[in-house]
Amino acid sequence: MKFGIVVFPGTWSDRDCFYSVHNICGQDAVYIWHKETDLAGCDCIILPGGFSYGDYLRTGAIARFSPVMDAVADFSKKGRPVIGICNGFQVLCEANLLPGVLRQNEHLQYRCQWTYLKTENISTPFTNKCRKGQVLKIPISHYEGRYYAGDDVIKELEDGGRVAFRYGTPAGEITAAANPNGALNNIAGIVNKQGNVLGMMPHPERSCEDILGSIDGNIIWESIIAGI
Amino acid sequence: MPASKEQLEEIALSRKEYNLIVSKLEREPTEVELGMFGSLWSEHCGYKHSKALLKRFPTSGKYVLIKPGEENAGVIDIGDGQVIGFKIESHNHPSYIEPYQGAATGVGGIVRDIFTMGLRPIALANSLRFGPMSDPHNRYLMSGVVGGIAGYGNCLGIADVCGEIYFDNCYSGNPLVNALCLGIGRREDLTRARASGAGNLVMLVGADTGRDGLHGASGLASRTFEEQRELRSAVQVGNPFMEKLLIEACLELTRTGWIVGLQDCGAAGLTSAAIEAADKGNSGLDIDVAMVPRREKGMTPYEVMLSESQERMVVIVKKGCEDKVSDLFDRWGLHSDIIGKVTDDGMATIRDGGKVVAHAPVKYLNNPPVYRFRPRRPDWLDDLQVLDLKKIKEMTPKDTGKILLRLLAAPNICSKRQVFRQYDHQVGNNSVVLPGEGDAAVLRIQETTKAYTLVTDGNGRYCYVNPLVGGVIAVAEAARNTACMGARPMAITNCLNFGNPERNDVMYQMHRCIEGMSQACRKLKTPVVSGNVSLYNETRGVAIFPTPVVGMVGLIKDVKRHCTAGFKSEGDVVFLLGDFGDDRALGSSEYLELIHGVVRGTQTIDLRTEKNLHDLLIKAIDRGLLRSAHDCSDGGLAVTLAESCIIGGIGFKGDLPAHGRLDTMIFGEAQSRAVVSVSPGKVRRLEEMAFKHRVPVTRLGIVGGGRFVLRGLTDLPVNDLEQAWSNRIG
To answer: How far apart are CA B319 and CA B407, in angstroms?
Structure first.
């Protein structure tokens, strides 16, 4: 299958995404410049991490107006998989492809550290290879990663099983201490109503090799590959 | 009309230097020429006080491709057609005036030095020194500096993988902020910073030019530090997004063959970028400042030539390729403007539209006088080097636990996690050993089985008490850290942070530190490939400790054969490699200062012993003998053992042999030592190997349980050690 990796000016996890899906998982991958409008026969679109347009205004607020984002919206409406990682998650929220916002971390500091994600829903195209409740060791790296939404949206997400991942302990307990940024309900990743758009703050592309400390990120790529 | 005293003061040139300029030009310089001379002859650009001393460093070796001063950074060959370029640079003075922007632009500058050479920047490191955290102003400086490094570096997507932070009173009025960047690339992609080929075009790319940073090089970096407030405009403001675009665009450009040279605008802005490139290419330049895009109206040619606005690059474009180059930058959303051309007359001709405002030989501009000051050994040094242990009250065995906990909580020893977790240390998918896990960072080299290590080191207190020995130890400890990871030390970069070089005692410190570093570099086979000098680090007459900071790169053949600092498994046997040291081991130690409030007594080191230890560590790790290895340094043996427990999350039970004074043995900082653990089945092989390498080896105890036990001395839960060690700063 073919992954399309969108590159905004200021994106930096494009190369890591490419490396993990191509070199590690052996799939085709292409970079898609933000001015392009053709998704070139891709089977899955990745919006990677970084600081699109410097994120000087509000994270993802300018990137959502890039020409490529109309194509990404159309792609998602056809039910095809789109995954936004870190800044990509922020862009998806700004583009209204996912509900809610990502606010500054509660402690007002950047955080780069390992987190342990409890998989809450294993029927999405991104988690179908996970065991129920499986804990994935995947790192975060962000300043604005505190998921926030109104009570009604949170209820809708929770009732609809749309919380894909929650920050937890290595044993899978959901505790305040395991929440690295103050996200509501320890939310680390959510899917849209149709289930084909995932936004997550942690970086699965950084945890695909033993030598780098974890291979748990591969489960997400393998799930996508299995679903195509 | 001769320049006034005020004019010369503004650009930090002496009357004698001015007269030299007049005699070379055979006329009075114009205002623009004077500004250009002032910048290029500043210590920061011209190294006039340090050049003679820097020649003492060994700079060649079998891995060295590009030596100091030849390009923006030194380069070593790591085999398979790949090269690594790296350099460390200071941004001390700007960071004191405006900590966030000062530190941020320090990162920006050193990153530009790397991608200018056609290498992709992939790792950052920081060496920081502050005054005590008990002072709110120091806390403000530190949080600003850390925020600036995080804010700028994280936005670029370059992993910030290691560094150190030390605190001492002497840095209160003058913090040190040294930033290191490392880049990797193919040998054939190396790009030079030179202007050559008459008729080729000079293009300025990136940010517009404003009044920010005027006199940064001549003013801020080249004098001592009293009137900081007036100098605020000499600090620049960074735009990491623009820098990120420049990285990608310039790396693409260096693979096209459309350019002959690339140079960043750092200290002294367009002046140094253009003149240094012309000098390296044995060319002249004809630049029209009217073509330089500005941020604000009414800027004079003088201001345009000396502005230190950030995120700007000078590109020397092959004639005929200018449209293709412009198109490339356009695609990245970057401005590019042709501002002049390369000439073959050896002159720097600066115009403002039709009017020539400067016309001076490049060779004159770029060749400042070299000063040789006579170093004088300060009178107070003899006394400072003596430690009379009779005056230091002996500890009792039952105090061991209490003192250990205090040392673990000391700012110079405690965990720096609260700082490094603010830096993205994993982007790039190369980070194998993360900050806090080992004595150095380990990064794998993609598409090979190899890895490299990176570490920074520099103990100012040792250098203050004994500049020669301190200089030796700065290099030796970096190499020991490297060897503890299983890597062969390859080369170093250094940042020489000292006080006012016009003082004989400071000159003595520089002289001896450099001598010590050079001795160690020779013996340990780690030539100096790049570096930076930061002088005038003093406020109101108080100089900092002489603080040379060493950044070292090492190479591991097989990334799987590396080691970390934490103990691993129940039953592993723990050894000390190296000896227990004599009474001098307490000299200048953390223990002596923290517990007794005393800073004195020289450390000692023997480089042959040191080298034997490194060879043993590297071989033992390569053969898979070691489960853990940790350099024995600040806080001595007890702290090293405790750290291996905390990092590994497992206990230790040991029996230390009696050996002289108790405090000297467990908290002394005798050099050339490491604490290692091995599985029981490999003990004999390690002992044999140590014997062959002439390294003393002493069995200390066994890994296991949840307690830290030194029989007869202390018995504490590892959790308590961790509590003491964690969350102390930040």
So the answer is: 63
pLDDT of residue B216: 63
B91 is catalytic: yes
B333 CA: distance to closest CA in chain A (Å): 9
Among A42, A86, A93, A208, the one annotated catalytic: A86
Q: A16 is written with which tokens?
A: 């890591």
ipTM: 0.96
Rounding to the nearest 10 degrees, give the CA dihedral for residues B649, B650, B654, B660. Answer: 0
Q: Convert B540-608 into a string of H (helix), E (strand) and C (coil).
A: CCEECCCEEEEEEEEEECCCCCCCCCCCCCCCCEEEEECCCCCHHHHCCCHHHHHHHCCCCCCCCCCHH
d(CA A130, CA A119): 7
CA distance A218 to chain B (A): 14
Rounded to the nearest 5 degrees, what angle is found at the Cα of A86, between the Cα atoms of A80 and A91?
Answer: 60
Compute the CA torsion angle B145, B151, B156, B157 (nearest 10 deg): 100
Give the per-residue pLDDT at B230: 46
Query: How wide is the angle at C-alpha B680 spanned by C-alphas B678 and B684, nearest 5°?
Result: 85
| Cβ neighbours of B187 (radius 10 Å) | 14
Rounded CA separation B458/B472 (Å): 10
Which tens digits make up the pLDDT trace of B13-43? 899 999 999 999 999 999 999 999 999 998 8
Q: B155, A113: Cβ pair inside 8 Å?
A: no
Using the Cβ of A105 and the Cβ atoms of chain B, whether some distance falls under 8 Å is answered with: no
Q: Does A212 contact B156 at a Cβ distance shorter than 8 Å?
A: no
pLDDT digits (tens, 9 = 90+) for B529-580: 999 999 999 987 788 999 999 999 999 999 999 999 999 999 999 999 999 9
> What pLDDT is stored for residue B452 in this prediction?
98
Catalytic site includes residue B596? no
Spatial distance between the Cα atoms of B730 and B726, rounded to a whole number of angstroms: 11
d(CA B527, CA B517): 10
pLDDT value, residue B572: 98
Give dist(CA B414, CA B409) in Å, integer: 5
What is the H or E stretch that residue B497 is in? strand B488-497
User: What tens digit of pLDDT does each residue of A194-211 get?
Assistant: 999 999 999 999 999 999
B675 residue type, one letter: V
The alpha carbons of chain A give a radius of gyration, in whole angstroms, of 16
Q: Buried (b) or exposed (e) across B212-234, using 16+ Cβ within 10 A? A: bbbbbbbbbbbbbbeebeebeeb
- A2-7 and A44-47: which strand pairing? parallel
Confidence label for B217 from pLDDT (cuts 50, 70 and 90): low
DSSP sequence for B100-136 = HHHHHHHHHHHHHHHHTTTPEEEEEEEEEEES-TTSH
Output the pLDDT for position B728: 86
Minimal-distance CA residue of chain B relative to A139: B426
CA–CA min distance A64, chain B (Å) = 17
- The token duo for B378 is 């300060």
DSSP state of B219: I
A158 has pLDDT over 80? yes
How far apart are alpha carbons B284 and B367 in whole angstroms? Answer: 15
**Could A19 and B446 be called an inter-chain contact, meaning their C-beta atoms sit closer than 8 Å?**
yes
CA neighbor of B154 nearest in space, from A203, A110, A85, A139: A110
Tokens of B467: 């500049």
Q: Does A143 touch chain B (CB under 8 A)?
A: yes
**Which residues are A16's β-sheet partners?**
none
Measured between beta carbons, the chain B residues lying within 8 angstroms of A143 are 154
User: How far is Cα B126 from Cα B550, in angstroms, rounded to an integer?
Assistant: 11
Phi, psi at A137, each rounded to 5° = -90, 105
Kindly tell me the burial class for residue B6, based on how many C-beta atoms sit within 10 Å of its own C-beta (0-12, 13-18, 19 or more). exposed
Alpha carbon distance A62, A51 (integer Å) = 11
